[in-house]
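Mods, move this if it's the wrong board.
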Amino acid sequence: MGLGTSSNTTFLSIGDGKITRRVKSPTTKSRERTLKNGNTIHEEIYDYIEGFITDIKVYQHEQYGKFWNVYMTDDTGETYCLQMNYSGGYSSAFLKILPNVDIKEKVKISPTMKVIDGKKKVGLFINQDGHALKHFYTKDNPNDLPQMRKVRVKGQDVWDDTDMMEFLESMVKTDIIPKITYKSGGQAGRVNAPAPVNDLPVTGEDDDPPF
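Not the wrong board. Structure tokens:
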């Protein structure tokens, strides 16, 4: 007799201000899209995801770098993993709001995207009890959050958020993870869903993913 466990986690990403779920073949909810590399994909589009946050992990892919994996479970017990680039507008907004989240209660996460002067400006809202939560870390009240630094790379000035992201990653590990408890159907206890190991990460933010 063999014993084991399996994960039925649904992986989601964010693109153009929408939550997307890539599917292998067309569904009644999916759209077809051609990537920059010429590959055709099918993806379902959603405005938001709602449920309990059950885990937050940094996932390091050997080829494509670091990602945030935000695991959530809805009222039916379905498990989802919302993947965001480690450094980007969506993850930055999520992490800066996170200290104001009651992590034991349900959240609604809604990404946004606007085109201003020809450039995409992305963001993300977190709602609880019908109210949008404010950023804990702001420009006027940074709460010790390091700011981005302008550095020169190969003769070009670029903004470096290394210190900021390291601070936010430490905040998640120290202040958020210990508070996480999953509760549904009278059960309580932290759920640790695995990172994807047999497939590539699916996030692409506001550009085509490289796979």
